[in-house]
Design goal:
- 45% of the residues lie in helices and 13% in strands.
- The chain is built from ten helices and seven strands.
- It has helices at 8-16, 40-50, 63-77, 91-105, 128-156, 168-171, 178-197, 220-224, 229-233, 243-254; strands at 30-34, 54-59, 82-85, 110-113, 161-165, 205-211, 264-267.
- The termini are far apart.
- 39% of the residues are buried.
- The model has no long low-confidence stretch (mean pLDDT 92).
Length: 279
């Protein structure tokens, strides 16, 4: 007797080994991408456009720069980009982001929350104010936005996906990174809790990515300063990360009907795995 939980059409395709991996499964789906106008976000936005999604790209300021990015992406990849301005650390901005995304088609499918702050504070200068600022930018803001997005998806009955951004410093202890790594480590657990709370029948998948030394975004300054050169020179990793390395993983986690949730994926070329290989 066939299971009542198995879709007959899916069962037929599986039995015949006919899998359609080329279909644009994000076509027409609204994905909110705070921080999607630069660094890693630009690569993610480009990939979303290529897959037919409708990205709503959030930026903190510099509207002229955001408009130039919007035009360039649309010219290169086709498809519309909707812009929304504001700092997601502010409650009003988070509400505006969600309203803009929901107004586009009356629904929101996905959230990719990129914003954060590198919190480059020397250990000797670390104080309560620095820790609080990092916590707000790297934990509080993305978690509150993710929870609000999950609530909106639940109200609409949308089986969606949320991707939060941590760092390799959030999964592995790096000396001198307390201000930044602490909130990023807390974000890992927040992602798991949200996945548990909004999973099950609601089927809202929440995952976390933890990029390593990547040649754009917040890590670019560290690479330019030579902080990670020894890892490449001595063969600990084959190269520095590229934005497309991260974008492809994010795209995987946004896949509709995905079977991944509550996971943390470190995208660092094996740097944290083989860090002990560096004398």
């Amino acid at each position: 007797m066939p299971s009542k939980f198995l879709d007959p059409e899916q069962a037929r395709k599986h039995a015949e080994h006919r899998y359609d991996f080329g279909r644009k499964t994000l076509g027409g789906k609204v994905v909110l991408v705070p921080g999607g106008a630069g660094g890693l976000g630009a690569a993610i936005t480009a990939l979303l456009l290529q897959d037919g999604a409708l990205p709503v790209v959030g930026y903190r300021s510099q509207r002229g720069r955001a408009l130039a990015f919007q035009q360039k992406m649309q010219d290169l990849h086709g498809g519309p980009i909707t812009l929304v301005e504001g700092d997601i650390g502010e409650a009003e901005a988070r509400e505006r982001y969600l309203k803009t995304a929901l107004d586009l088609k009356g629904d929101l499918y996905g959230l990719v929350a990129l914003p954060g702050d590198p919190a480059r504070v020397k250990p000797a200068d670390l104080d309560a104010a620095a820790l609080e600022a990092s916590f707000r930018a790297n934990y509080e803001a993305p978690v509150l936005l993710a929870r609000a997005a999950a609530e909106a998806m639940t109200r609409n009955g949308t089986k969606g996906a949320i991707v939060l951004f941590s760092s390799m410093q959030g999964v592995h202890p790096f000396e001198g990174s307390l201000a930044y790594a602490g909130p990023k480590a807390a974000l890992l657990q927040a992602g798991r809790i949200l996945a548990k709370e909004y999973g099950g029948a609601a089927d809202i998948r929440v995952n976390v990515v933890a990029p390593g030394a990547t040649s754009v975004g917040m890590a670019r300054a560290s690479i330019d300063a030579g902080k990670y050169d020894a890892y490449v020179e001595r063969g600990v990793i084959p190269r520095f990360g590229r934005p497309e390395d991260v974008a492809r993983v994010v795209r995987l986690l946004l896949e509709p009907d995905s079977y991944l949730t509550g996971q943390v994926i470190t995208i660092d070329g094996g740097l944290t795995l083989r860090r002990d290989a560096l004398p």
